[in-house]
Amino acid sequence: MLPLLLSALLLSTSVDLWMMMPQALSDAVFDMDGQMLQTGTQYNVLPGVHVEGGGGLTLGFRNGNCPMNVAQHESNTSSGLPLTISPVNASLTAIPVSTGVKVVFAAATICVQSTAWRLGQVDRATGRRYVTTGRGVSTVSDWFEIEKYEDYYKLVSCQSVCIGCNVVCGDVGVVREGGKRWLVLSDEPFPVVFKKV
Fold it and tell me: Do residues 192 and 176 make contact, with C-beta atoms less than 8 angstroms apart?
């Protein structure tokens, strides 16, 4: 009787785990090789749809001063700079979709400040909010989300990590300005894929 009871319990547990797996897998972000994005692993963020004058993500001076802004590399063949992605829940090893993440370039700059992404304030000259870098005190503008978008992913600035906060939400898109392609808050999302370094 005991072996039969143990077999039933084991089968029940196996079925429960099997039924939960597709949901867990569908909630993960995957790289170009079909592997789940891992916390602390370096990735390049590449355009899902290739356009002339736009490679992987990198840093650039938009107005000649620090902090640096996030841009697409001018060369379509460049993978850009590697970066790491860390979820708000530090105990997670895989990056889920639609959860708060910090994005940090694995690079040093002449600005001598963090290369962590943040959403900048509204630029007076253009009326746009650019994705920039550097931070002092951690704020809601430091958090982004990765969401499924068609056959790709998109980056979103909507800090769901702060319940009850008055935040500006929107897709991260690209705008051409001064011969470069800058990441900005936009109505038109920028489709991306992730490539493990």
Answer: no
Residue pair 23/172 in contact (Cβ under 8 Å)? The answer is no
pTM of the model: 0.83
Facing residues of 148 across strands?
153
142 and 116 in contact (C-beta within 8 Å)?
Answer: yes
Return the bridge partners of 173, or none.
Answer: 184
Instruction: Identify the pLDDT of residue 53.
Output: 73
For 111, other C-beta atoms within 10 Å of its C-beta total 15
Q: Is the dihedral of CA 114, 118, 124, 126 positive or negative?
A: positive
Structure tokens, 155: 């980056």
The residues, ordered by sequence, that sit 6+ positions from 181 with a Cβ below 8 Å of its Cβ are 51, 53, 54, 71, 72, 174, 175
- In 3D space, the residue among 119, 131, 124, 125 whose CA is nearest the CA of residue 175 turns out to be 131
Q: What is the pLDDT of residues 155-184, one digit of tens each?
A: 999 766 566 677 778 999 999 998 899 999
Say whether 4 sits in a helix, a strand or coil.
Answer: helix
Instruction: Supply the DSSP string of 164-175, one letter for each residue.
Output: T-----EEEEEE
Q: Sort 48 into a burial class: Cβ within 10 Å, 0-12 / 13-18 / 19+.
A: middle
Q: Is 10 helix (H, G, I), strand (E, B) or coil?
A: helix
Q: Are 142 and 129 in contact (CB under 8 A)?
A: no
